[in-house]
Amino acid sequence: MKDREASDPVEPAIDDRLVLRHTFARAYLEPKTLKPRRMRMPHHELPSLDGMVLVFDCETVDHGLTFGALEIYERRRLKTRAVFYRDDLPETDPERYEQLKEICRALDVRLVNREWFFQNAIWPARKYGWTIAGFNIAYDLSRIADSVEPATKTARLGTRFCNGFAIKKGLVGTKKDVPPPVFCRIKRDDRHHVRFDMKHAVVLDLATSAFAYTDRNQSLESACHAFDLPLEERPGAHSGEITHENVAGCLFDVVKTSELLWAIDAEHRRHPTELHLSRAQSGASIAKAYLDALGVRPRLEIQPEFPKESLGYAAQAYYGGRVEARIVKTPLPCVYLDFLSMYPTVFALLGLWFKHVIPATLEVEEIAPAEIAALLERLRANPESLFDPATWSVLDFFALVEPHGANLPARAVIPRLGLSRRERIASEAAHRYEETFAAQAPF
Length: 443
What we know:
Shape: elongated
Largest sheet: 6 strands, mixed
CATH topology of the domain at 46-279: Nucleotidyltransferase, domain 5
CATH class of the domain at 46-279: Alpha Beta
Strand content: 15-25%
CATH architecture of the domain at 46-279: 2-Layer Sandwich
Number of strands: 12
């Protein structure tokens, strides 16, 4: 066998049956026949925290509502604080109901049923445009509902995926054959952001807002620490049982959620952007708001004749990797291995801001493959040159890569129930490839 030089590329022989061919990448192509989208409500028309604000939390047993607590603010001043319970509690468990009444008397807090909660908070919020806030608010909204059903579906390779839910509440005194009205729709959009539709109301999930400004998945406790809020020991447990400590703990959570709301809002108002707090779903949302504030417009808006193929190359090259583990109550050593502020750093070091973002016009320049091959050969011979700032200026290009069997980032098929035949074959091929790789790995 002829000896190969160390620099020669190796083309591994891979069984064609083991190659994963069906991968999915986000694309935003709009057909010419597509009707124009209805413009979103301008940010200044969204409800403000200076108006009416509802903050609430639920306690459950087996994911069924037992009781909860709420606070209603008007012009940032507390107007109402109450404990609410499920409507059938006096009939199904009168002993616990009487106990809850005694607890509320001892805590000097108003006790109302869920119907009062809807008539005096949820329906007015939808009609008049309140802000509804909570920590992991989607769960609490689903707990006060009578029913939840899929709301929107998408199709991919013949398979239907649900990406939205309609949350319904029955009306007192209506006929049984009348379907309950929807009071909230929850949908995950193309950017994997959660959107809430409650007519004129705005739903604000503080878990999402805390993540956007800290780049960490937070609990209520850790979020309070992140925003320098005093946090005493919480009474009771999240068991949903009606005890004095548990009711006091639910009220404690609502109070701290309200304090966190005002703290995050204070941080949000420090930024000179027009981004509404409910739209700050990640650090990328805040960064895009800053681009809008700086007057940076999309390339096709300032240069309509720019080739869309080149924009497609840029979009295809984007890869935002994220890996996280959500394991509850299991201590595991974790190390943060991602780059911190990678995109601003790369833009600054490569000079992309002045060369690619803000120029009034851009021209596409084709680079000969031989020139790129020579660059890679120089870098392979002298890897230390990557630490030389003079090298960075020649790295701002897009290249089509043929991996020859190497593992590259891809949006691959995830096995799930209801896969189409094509997706199932691709998923099984990927699984066989992983088993083969593991068997041949030297470690």
